[in-house]
Here is the input.
Amino acid sequence: MNIFRFSGDMTHLISILVLLLKIYATKSCSGISLKTQELYALVFLTRYLNLFTEFFSVYNTVMKLVFIGSSLVIVWYMRMHRVVKLSYDKELDTFRHYFLVVASFVLALLVHEKFTFQEIFWAFSIYLEAIAILPQLVLLQRSGNVDNLTGQYVFFLGSYRAFYILNWIYRYFTENHFARLISCISGLVQTALYADFFYYYFISWKNNKKLQLPA
Amino acid sequence: TQQPQSHDEL
Here is the structure.
């Protein structure tokens, strides 16, 4: 464990707490893409298949359970909660995210570290996470003004993987045979997808204006 | 030897 990875995990956790706060406090999920939340639940369920077979640390196991649990709770809230589900932007959240799942799975079948069930699903989860934010970014552009908590959620979610990139660089130089090409390349793509969001987020913060994404 | 290390990252 290193400070970059720990910061990344904490930033990721903060993004989830901010999203839970928004949904719980406002009893609304307007501006949140259910499709991105479903993709993230799939990412965690397929990435942590080793949850019960490999033990690294209490921290690692607890965080896996928190990520899996929170993503399922958020999907449940947006689908089933009698009040929250009414505020879901059903007609705006129309990204065909099944294509993202299929594309990631096909790529995982082609590019993986080892042709085993667990490794293919691990690679699938890495590729899927890189593009899982797309429905959310499209929804933000369509829904025009973005409320603060939603903006902060996306900001922290995008930032966490940037910390992981620093972690991979650090591990590359400190551990002789550390090479995580799949994670690194996907992580770079994932962070790059947030580039324009970060730009508009910074502009809105500098001018102290509401976050506006160009349609 | 590029043994795939077990995935210790979240």
Remarks:
- DSSP finds no helices and no strands in chain B.
- Chain B touches chain A at residues 1-2, 4-10 (CB under 8 Å).
